[in-house]
Please model this.
Amino acid sequence: MQKSKVYPWYFAIVSVLIYTVLSVIPGLLGIGYSFTDWSAYSPYLNFVGFKNFIAVFSGENDYIKYITNTLWFTVVTTTAKTFLGLLFAVALSRNIKIKNFHRGMLYMPSVLPILVTGLVFKSILNPKTGFLNTFLRAIGLEVLAQKWLVDPNLAFGTVMAVDIWRGTGYIMTLLIAGILAIPDIYFEAAAIDGANAWQRFKFITLPMLRQTLAVTIVLNVIYGLKIFDMVYALTNGGPGHRTEVLYTAVYKMMSKGLYAEGTTISSVLFIFMVIIGFFMVKILTKDEVVE
Amino acid sequence: MKKKILSLLLSATLIASLTACAGGGDMSAAATGSAADSAAAPADAGNADTSADTSAAPAESAAAEESEPAASDSSAAGTTITVMASQDWVEDAEQELGKKFEEETGIHVDYQIVPADQYQDLLLTRLNSGEGPDIWGAQSGFALKTTYKVEENAVDLSNEPWMSSYSQFSAAQTGVDGKNYGLTYYDTTTDYYIVYNKKLFEAAGAKVPTTFNEFTDACDKLLASGVTPLYEPLADGWHLLMLWTESAQVHDKQEPGIIDKLNKNETTFAENANMKLAVDQLNTLATSGYLGDNYMSDEFADAEGYLASGEFAMCCLKPGSIKKIVESDLNTAGYTEDDFGLFLFPICDNQYLNIHPTGPSRFIYSGSKNIDAAKQYLSFLLEKDNVQYLIDNAADVENIPVEVGQTPEYSKTTLDFLNSYDDDHSGMVLQDVVLYFNEQWMDINADLAAMFIGDMTSEDVLKGIDERRAQLAEAAGDENWK
Model:
């Protein structure tokens, strides 16, 4: 279906201009700095070519590990938030008792600032004095009490779990809105045809939710790749460097005054985002009707 | 199709603008001199005094002149000054003094206390983005010129009235090129040593060690008696490294000239066998269970409590902490100050007293709109009554490096311990004499933690130190690294 254009292109000039000046140009300048030796220690700026990028990918430092951690965090949290968000959304779009209360409770963690959530969980998860282990010990489940944030084998999983807890409610809310927008008539027709709950979910809910799911997945992926504050508040990259991600590394570089190295890591992240974003948009919009 | 390409391009640019850091540093103003220049100050300070002298200094303070009380500036009344510092750098007693200051001047003091593991990154980010607090705290020493760029980020305090009462030993560490930019408001008249529980040692049959082997023997005996030997709070991210650096004067004694060679880039940490031995010995502490089960999440603020409870037998603390241990609510065993003693951590068999005139210091941000009020606050802190108030009310502060006629509170334990080492058996700590070391303090601590969990070896840790030193030296344009 091809509709005639309603608005002329020049309506967008002002916003595009502001956006370009305030966002695009500084962004491109940032990438440009990746090819220099920009630092707080010298007033001079020299072109160094790909030296900073070679340092990132040389394997002599931990950047590859930070990249892997960031990608792993993105994959796990996106998958878990989408799955759990969908599960709760389907459950809470039915007529169950006090469903708004349930929705509110699940959404509430998203309202809290990430740093606050991180600091609260840091206290709750303290292996010796934290609420979780104290509770587990009190009910006789001491075997389950763990060093949640400092055990090298558990720390990253714990950080991801806290982030999933925080983010699922938000995704659920978006998906509930999507489910409620599906006309009841489809479900009624399917029910008359004898479709069971799983079939109604599979052949009506899921296809009709595709656009909403596309949005939530893209939001989760971008959030995951940019993750900083949750890791910063919970572990600050530790124990050792086990939970270090790209943006904690960028932050540490920038705070040390090594600006060029910091912008280089940012640029690497940008490349990842473009590649991942390109394929995601392509896959998720392949059946979209072009207006 | 064109529309799709356009939308993809727009998405890409959006992401680019969100991710790429343009930064906000004023590059034109970021001039710094050769980092090698800054080596002079601590080296001079090292020759100037010893901690034994420092401990004696308070007794001679009668001749010191009192600083003038802060003049009340009615124009500043109603303003608020911010003091940003790392956890444990601002005593409760100082915050009480802040309230008194507000009563007298009408200037409110807003203390922004940041967790230790996040402080340096946060401060530098604020300074580098031109949004520093009115008064910021930082460790004095080499890094002031290179990392904190005090000449750019701090106000020259050389002509403040309290300069005449400020320890020249400390002034050498808060100054750059003959100008003083800071005030060390921390007990640097003593350093960190191992505080140990004599009763627990006695019960376990352990003796005060003078070599590392004797130390591990003592730890084994303590473990056998059901006591965790050493409280080491890794969660704060700054304390662990002190076990090495506060005893690292032994390196210079064992290999005279090593510090000079490191600063001239003629040798590296990684190729030095003694450095490797020191880091390996640190690893032994963790792998042998001497730090207990919870050291990764233990915090420095709890150190005195754990020693008071008798759960731990030792911790690397300032001598003034003994009073705090005894006064702790967790001291149910009724320990007295006499039940605690001091010894040097015998890493690489060190038996040289550590001298460490650097410490948490205050600097007034050059971009502050409240410079006069901030100066007024520093002057207020150094009034005799206020210095005495801090000493009397901050349990772990025995003195601070100013002489305004205050009466220090050195315990007999402290004085006996310090006086047992002469000049030939004392030396400056590693971070005060080695260039580009203090700047990476938190990174080294993180690497040591990584070594404890098996992610790095001692060689990796030392190599990491060398790489970051080279990175910092190169960025600073140091000739010795070209």
